[in-house]
Amino acid sequence: MSTRGPVLIIGTGLLGTSLALALRAAGVEVQLSDTSPTSLALARDMGAGVPHDEDSPEPQIVVVAIPPDVTADVVVAQLAAHPHAVVTDVASVKERVVAEVRARAGAEARRYVGSHPMAGRERSGAAAADSDLFAGRPWVVVGQDSDPEAELVIRNLAVDVGATPVRMGAVEHDAAVAAVSHMPQLIASLVAARLEALGESALALSGQGLRDVTRIAASDPRLWSAIIVGNAGPVADLLRQISADLGALIECIEAAACEPDSSEHTAPGAAHTIAPGAVGAVTDVMARGNTGRARIPGKHGGAPRRYAEVQVLVPDAAGELGRLFSDIGAAGVNIEDFSLEHSAGQSAGIALISVLPAAAQGLEEALDAKGWRVVAG
Prior knowledge:
It holds the Pfam family PDH_N. The protein is of the alpha/beta class. It is built from 13 helices and 12 strands. The chain folds into 3 domains: about 5-170, NAD(P)-binding Rossmann-like Domain (Rossmann fold, 3-Layer(aba) Sandwich), CATH 3.40.50; about 200-295, no CATH class; about 310-375, 2-Layer Sandwich (VC0802-like). The protein has helices at about 15-25, 35-45, 70-80, 95-105, 150-160, 170-195, 200-205, 210-215, 220-230, 230-255, 275-295, 320-330, 355-370; strands at about 5-10, 30-35, 50, 60-65, 85-90, 110-115, 140, 165, 310-315, 335-340, 350-355, 375. The strands form 2 sheets. An 8-stranded mixed sheet has the order 3-2-1-4-5-6-7-8, with helices on both faces. The model is unreliable at about 260-265 (pLDDT under 50).
């Protein structure tokens, strides 16, 4: 642990409290500050640190963990209030924040290092905090125009809580997170919004695909409004491209829907003609989606790898999932990825176990011998 305290964390939401818990677990002194007495008290009671007051020792590091629309104001104020501290922020928008701090803080801005840990959850607030939130995650460090020693302090902070520092420019960062974080959030919310008026009988058919696509739609609307507006340019560009793709897709699918139904004049067993334009358009979107998804980094951020998937029926009963993991371990197989598909009202779920292809057959045989029902893929 190379981070020296005290570390003052402004904002006791998910990121701020998670960072505080991680630092406290490593023995670093942490001070907390928040405009919400309730949030501050909860973080304190969780063991994240002690409230900062006028008698508190001067911090070595100040971390501003508040919404991006007010981040620059607080960073500038903290640079003035603590003239010997390195100040960082963890907002998910960097260009506007960095530019405003540089413009307003003058020479003191050399002690400011913008950063952004690529970690989060759909739940917000101190109650959702996790000391392991940053473990294995990239932590972007925007060190442009910062004192190199100040940048090193923030890089060490990231490493000390288990993250991997990644140096990027502010503009490059904002374009990247627009594609991998901000735009997906809006798309998930748009899909989930279509469910508002859907009947209960239709919702009862929901499967894991819908849950996967809409999981992040449960995120905090107020926080995300500030994030999206703060990164409006890159997000709008991406939405415009998606809009063009949707427009072309809708046009082709509508053409198929408008074709006269020739089923009454088609001989029994004969294939019904489908508009080739619609087939091509859907195939193109799906194929491009396959290609894009295959580019997402694999385990531990490495190159994407193809795994074999073993499917096992798991009874909905206490201890069954633990027994499954134990039996997989006893077979000497490492789980590369895992998910559980469980439809409402069903007495069992399907465990999807991703393993190296060479291990798949042996695992299926070992689980079958243990009495598990292995489902053919």
